[in-house]
Amino acid sequence: MRLGIIIIALAAIAVALVQVRREEMVARHRLQTLRAAQVKIRRALWEQQVRLGELTAPRAVRHRAAEMALGLVDKAEAERKVAVDAPPAPRPANVNPQVPLWQR
Predict the structure, then answer these.
(1) Ramachandran quadrant class, 71 (left: phi over 0; alpha: psi -120 to 50; beta: rest)
(2) b or e along 20-32 (b: 16 or more beta carbons within 10 Å of the residue's beta carbon)?
(3) Which residue of 6, 25, 55, 88 has the fewest C-beta atoms within 10 A of its own C-beta?
(4) Is the pTM of this model over 0.70?
């Protein structure tokens, strides 16, 4: 009687062990599939970041602006134009240019 109970218990343990190993294999396969998908998604993300960097580079922006004839100007060019076109600022009447600023 005891031997029969032990044999049944060992058989139940063996069946449970096989089931656990099978579930572990399924989980490992799922994990491997998810990791492969993650690699693909990361690669696509990297490619999009590279493309975005190429499109937002100053040279590319200037090129596209020239193609679309937007009339955009470079900041330094605009400042030079303002500096050349603007009249000189008037001097206050009571300021002596010979006296340093820190002594005024």
Answers:
(1) left
(2) eeeeeeeeeeeee
(3) 88
(4) no
- Tokens representing 58 are 């100053």
Band (pLDDT 50/70/90 cuts) for residue 73 is: low
Tokens coding 71: 């009339």
Query: Distance between CA 16 and CA 22 in Å, rounded?
Result: 10
Token couple for 34: 């998810």
Q: Is the dihedral of CA 65, 66, 71, 74 positive or negative?
A: positive
Q: What percent of the chain has pLDDT over 90?
A: 52
Rounded-to-integer distance, Cα 82 and Cα 32, Å: 62
Residue 88: strand, helix, or coil: coil
